[in-house]
Amino acid sequence: MNRTKIFVWEISGAVVISLLGTLLHYLFAFVGEWPPAALIAAVNESVWEHLKLAVWPALIYAFVEWLFLRQSIKNFWTAKAFGILTMPVIITSIFYGYKAFTGRHILWVDISLFVFGVFMGQIISCVLLLRQSIGSKVKILAAILLVLMIAAFSVFTYFPPHYPLFRDAPTGQYGILK
Predict the structure, then answer these.
(1) CB atoms < 10 A from the CB of 111, how many?
(2) Within 10 Å of residue 68's Cβ, how many Cβ atoms?
């Protein structure tokens, strides 16, 4: 597989994921708070709901990308799993880190952090896609992590744990179900 082609796919993906994530921020309100839309769209201003804005578009983009690259890359889903997992890890850790330092969140920093996390996830994916082989234990771990991530992002909007990550700061509420 051509290294440049993979790089272009991944960087283009970062742009597409960032734009799609931005649209998903407003989708729930746009569709009149239709409960099924809550699966992929942010339903409140919690950190968790904003992480969905990176994860779901990244998964959607990965499926599209897979249609074009599946014949030439053997470790595609392993690379995607670790790349997609990187996004919420980076976003969450830097968000809480800078918030601890400043005592508040800053909107332009939050938006920049979202885009940075997406780009870093796509770069991790790119690096792993360019590897000739990845061990079977790593592939199994990636599959388990991807399934757990999809399960968590599918369930926790509807049934969120009562932890700060899931709390909507403006209202104090959790998730969509009141």
Answers:
(1) 13
(2) 11
Full-model pTM: 0.92
How far, rounded to the nearest angstrom, does the alpha carbon of residue 76 sit from its chain's CA centroid? 17
Separation CA 159–CA 163 (nearest Å):
12
- Scanning the structure block, which residue is given the tokens 């950190």? 47
The pLDDT of 16-44, averaged and rounded, is: 94
pLDDT value for 159: 93
The residue extents of the domains of the chain are 3-166
What are the tokens at 106? 């800053």
Query: Exposed, middle or buried by CB within 10 Å (0-12, 13-18, 19+), for 96?
Result: middle
d(CA 159, CA 178): 10
Q: How many CB atoms lie within 10 A of CB 77?
A: 16
Over 80: is that where the pLDDT of 54 sits? yes
Locate 136 and state its tokens.
């079977």
Q: What is the pLDDT of residues 124-145, one digit of tens each?
A: 999 999 987 788 899 899 999 9
CA distance 178 to 171: 12
Region of 175 on the Ramachandran plot (φ > 0 left; ψ -120 to 50 alpha; else beta)? left
Angle at 117 between CA 159 and CA 62, to 5 degrees: 75
